[in-house]
Design a protein that fits this description.
alpha/beta
Length: 191
Amino acid sequence: MTTTLDRTEPRDLAAEPPVRLSLTPRTTLAGQLDGAWWPYSRDLAAELPALAAALEAPWGRVTRVTVNPARWPVVPHTVAACGRVLHVGWFTEQDPDKLILLSYTIGRWDLLVVPPETAPAAAARLMTAAAIPGSVLTAGVLMANEAVIGRGARDARRREAAWEDEGGACMTTFGEPFGRSALPLSANGWR
């Protein structure tokens, strides 16, 4: 049996998960990014309609989208969104962590694309940083910074786990735990 999907038929948006989006507030400060988007998958055909629908009220009608194909396994030429066709293009010169949205009448918006597999805490940091008005940080810089922060957090958790595994004991310079008798007496005689 063959099933044909009609991508032009209306979808039940209430049944779909909410769009994870963070936008810069309206201001005169122009920055490198206009916000961040955290898609649920790397399927542009499935993810773009909800994004276009969510942006229609605050920004207006999105007509074109450009991406770098390095982060998207399939880049369709068109996607049905909000009862119309959204044209999708790709450029290898574009920052791989950025999505560019275009409108004939409104202008251009650049969004950081938070990878779908990103942990919620890291995604929250990235989405907040991308929505700072007037920020000069590019999508690539934000992602590189988050990689460093993520490495630091993993190292801190590993050190804390090692501390807990050792019973939280103070260690000598030779890596051996101090016994209570090895600690010097304080002035009042307590250890």
